[in-house]
Design a protein that fits this description.
Length: about 325
């Protein structure tokens, strides 16, 4: 499909879904829908249900713009369905989505190419008290607990003492079935978007996150005024360059395409620590990647148009 055909087809913006990030996805999807319509494309919003194939057929979708966050929209499930249906879509494919939503596998792959990540422990349910002592031996305290498969900081807890760690691990295991515990990094939280396909793949400016809460949690991410977004980040030039290099390296090694976002910390010694890659980052008015694009002089519509191009690039 070329650009002329793209102009003449219906673009289904996939948003909503059934993950814990449903409401954010709907906000992303609405912004993308309005941008596509401003750009002159024929676009409709589709909230995936159990028979997504029938939904897409009903609207005559020729292309899908994926604005789903978490769950089936970001774990490769919907990508596999679209591949089976022969409908082009934006962003990463089945394997990259499956890997990036799995924080443990992402860390393991990053380690093979020399991307530094905090020490971590990983457990599956059920909880037993011995897990806590084993974790502290690896990560020390404070430590950060999180579910392996969630995004948008859902289920994340900073644990500064052993009782809090035990409680957070038990709750995470009970609710999500597993828990990943990272050594807590004191320093600056940053994120780096990556855009483009093939030779045009490049990093966006580094964004520094200064939450008004304890950390950049779900509320801080999506509530205006709760986080200061500073772009470009206040980092030494060599740290900025290295953060961008690592983001592109992670993007490529995990097989991402079109768009991704790499989350990291810079510690007090200026060392970078990799956390995860998001294969379908938020596109709301408070989201990170749009702010990074704005720092380059791109508009929101420019960003949407570039992501759309990933649907028609050879896979």
């Amino acid at each position: 499909m070329d650009n002329a055909q793209l102009r003449s087809t219906t673009i289904a913006v996939l948003a909503g879904g059934r993950s814990s990030e449903r409401e954010v996805s709907l906000r992303s999807g609405q912004g993308i829908l309005e941008a596509l319509q401003r750009l002159g494309f024929r676009a409709v919003l589709v909230d995936p249900g159990p028979d997504l194939g029938a939904q897409l057929a009903a609207v005559g979708a020729g292309v899908c713009f994926n604005a789903l966050h978490g769950g089936a929209g970001e774990d490769g499930t919907i990508q596999a369905l679209l591949d089976w249906l022969g409908i082009p879509y934006t962003g990463s494919g089945v394997l990259a989505c499956a890997l990036t939503l799995n924080k443990l596998q992402t860390k393991r792959i990053a380690a093979t190419v020399g991307i530094p990540s905090p020490e971590y422990a990983y457990f599956t349910a059920p909880f037993c008290p011995a897990m806590v002592a084993e974790t502290i031996a690896i990560t020390g305290l404070p430590a950060v607990t999180k579910p392996n498969y969630e995004g948008s900081s859902v289920g994340v807890t900073i644990c500064r003492d052993e009782p809090t760690l035990a409680r957070a691990m038990a709750e995470c295991l009970e609710q999500y079935g597993d828990v990943l515990v990272d050594r807590y990094i004191v320093g600056t939280e940053i994120t780096v978007g990556v855009l483009g396909c093939g030779e045009r793949t490049r990093a966006l400016p580094v964004l520094e996150l200064v939450p008004h809460k304890e950390f950049y949690d779900y509320e801080a991410k999506y509530t205006k005024g709760l986080t200061d977004l500073i772009c470009p980040a206040r980092l030494a030039p060599e740290v900025t360059a290295e953060a961008q290099r690592l983001a592109v390296l992670a993007h490529r090694e995990l097989g991402c395409r079109g768009i991704s976002r790499c989350d990291m910390h810079v510690d007090e010694q200026g060392r970078l620590w990799f956390h995860e890659v998001n294969s379908c980052p938020g596109m709301t008015e408070t989201s990170d990647v749009p702010h990074e694009a704005f720092a380059l002089g791109m508009t929101y519509d420019d960003l949407v148009l570039e992501i759309l191009q990933s649907a028609v690039e050879p896979r």
